Structure formats: C-alpha cells, structure tokens
Amino acid sequence: EIKIHKYRTMPKVSLNRSWTTLDPMISFLGPSETESLPLSRNLKELKLIFSGNRIPSKSIEKLTIFISRHLTGLRSLRLDFESCSSISPNDFGFLIKEITRNLQYLDTLHVDFTKCALLSDKSVEYFTRNLTRYFPDIQSLDFTFKGCSLIGDRSVRESLKIFSKRLYNLKSLGIGFGNGSISDKAFESFHQETKGKFAKLKSLGLYFSRCPMISNTGLKALGKGLSENFRGLEKLRIIISPNYSPYGKFDDEGVKNLIYKICQYLENLKELGLYFWKYHEVTAKSIKRLEVGIGNLKNLKVLSVNLEGCNPDAVQAVEELTKKLATEEGMIIGT
C-alpha cells in the first residue's frame, strides 16, 4: 500500500511495503541518486515501515544515502524496522550517522528497531550521542529497542542521562525497551539521571514489554522520578508487562505508590494511560487508589487503564470506574 498526501507547504509520504529490496521505494521518490523529484526536494514528512522484512545491507545503505542527501528538508521522519533481524550494528551505525549529520531541519524523529537482535548497548549509545550532538533542538523523539536481548539497563540509564543534559527543548519523548535483562535499575534512572532537566517535556511514553525482573522497587523508583523531575507533563502513558509466563513480580504495593506519586505531583496531566499486563497480584486496591487520586488531577480529560491478565477483581474495578467516570462531562475513558 502506498499513500501520498500532498500539501502546498508540507508534502507527506507514507510507504508501507513488504519489499526485500528498497529499490522500488527509491525509484518512486526519485529516479536516481543525483536527480530527485520535486516531491523529494519539498518533502517535510516521511514515514517508512519495513516491519518483518530481511533487508540487505546494500539496500539500507542506498536508502540512507537517498534520505540524507535528497530529503534534506525533512521536518519529521519515522523509520520502522521492527523484526528486521538482519540489520547489523554497522547498518544501524551508518543509518544513524548519515541521518543525524545531514537532516538539519528535523524536529520529529521516530525509530523502531524492535527485535533487531544484533543491536546492543553500544548501538543505543551511538544513537543517543549522535542525536544529541546534531539535533540539540529536537522537539519530539520516540525510539524503541524492545526484544533486543543485548540491550539492557545501561541503555536506559545512559539515554536518560545524555538526553536530560543536552535536549533542552524536548517536548515529547517515547522510550521503548524490553527483554529479560531490563531490571529495577532501569526505572531508578528516572530519578537518579534526570534531576529536573526535563522542564519543557509535555508528553512521556514508557513502553517496557517482557520485563519480568521489574518489581515494586522499580515502580517506587519510577514514581519518585516522575514526581520530582517530570512535573510539567500533560500526557503520560506507561506500559509494563512481564514475559508471557510466569506472572510479573510487582503487586498493589508498587502500583499504588506509583499512582499516588502521579496523582499527587503531576497536576498538569490532561491524558493518563496505565497498562499493566499479567500481574496477578495487582488487585482492585490499586484501582481504588486511582479513583481517589484522580480527584487531584483537575485538568485530566483522557484516562485509559488496562489490567489484562491481572487479578479478576482488578479488571472488574476498572469496568466500574469506567462507568462512573463516563458520566462526567468532558471525560474520555478508554481501556
């Protein structure tokens, strides 16, 4: 499927194809590496999704050269390589180097390398250092390395440490990690490595899937970090899940503490999403804490809660809270 949207001042192209080579896409956007279409020169937003394809290194190199040399006016770029298992650290390094050094107008970047198993902590470090060096004024950043077994707590810690020191104008941040090596130490970084540096951040998304080692200790550290260093947030979404089995480690103690910190200190929140999947020890007590706490969030307009696989009484409590809040004017409730 190819979708093209042309606007007078901001053309946009969205490509979603199951290609084993990127040549058709490059031929579509521009006939050669030296001559690009008017569409290419004026392009402001580009979204490329190649999920699940085995893409040769030569094709990655050709794509990278084309984007970095012919689409230099881009303001927004999304590259989705989920489950493209053949991507090597060299492919990744070349892609990041060329994009960060040539797309000087970029203010929105979304990259997804979920299940790109060859990437490691060194890959993430290279990404963060190049990003902060060449895009210090970037406003919206979303990056995902879920399912990469060679990437762990170190990447979470170093990313937050570097971003908090150098991305002064960042307004929206999405972070996705997930594998068996992510532990409570990753969440401790939200308190230890940020220290009030994200003053302008308005939106934060935390996506930690298949993380069975996260416990109440990690949730408490996350709550402390959010309450002290992210008080300007208007939108917050947290997704945490363990492996498919067994059930996760944390329970009501950790969830209630996190909810308390959010509701007590993030008073500017307009949207809140909490998704905890397969934590059997999370019960209706956590939802009761939420029901009380959201009374402090006077600006809240959108609330989404999903406790799939948690204790049945927690799921029932979510349904009851949804019915109750649905009667409030202006409130949007979702699961």
Describe the structure.
The protein is α/β, with parallel strands linked by helices and 335 residues long. The protein is built from 11 helices and 12 strands. The protein has helices at 23-29, 38-42, 57-70, 89-102, 121-134, 153-166, 184-192, 216-229, 252-265, 284-293, 312-326, and strands at 2-5, 12-16, 45-49, 76-80, 108-112, 140-146, 172-178, 203-208, 235-240, 271-276, 302-306, 332-334. It has a 12-stranded mixed β-sheet, with helices on one face. α9 (252-265) links the parallel β9 (235-240) and β10. α8 runs parallel beside α9 (252-265) and α10 (284-293) runs parallel beside α11. The chain is globular and about 55 Å long. The two termini are 29 Å apart. The model is unreliable at 1-10 and 31-38 (pLDDT under 50).
Task: Briefly summarize what is shown.
With 335 residues, the chain is an alpha/beta fold. It contains eleven helices and twelve strands. It has a twelve-stranded mixed sheet, with helices on one face.
Query: Overall 3D geometry?
Result: globular
Strand content: 15-25%
Mean pLDDT: 86
Instruction: Give the end-to-end Cα distance, rounded to a whole number of Å.
Output: 29 Å
Element order: H for helix, E for strand: EEHHEHEHEHEHEHEHEHEHEHE
Q: Count the E strands.
A: 12
Any key phrases for this structure?
alpha/beta; disordered N terminus; 39% helix; 11 helices; 335 residues; globular
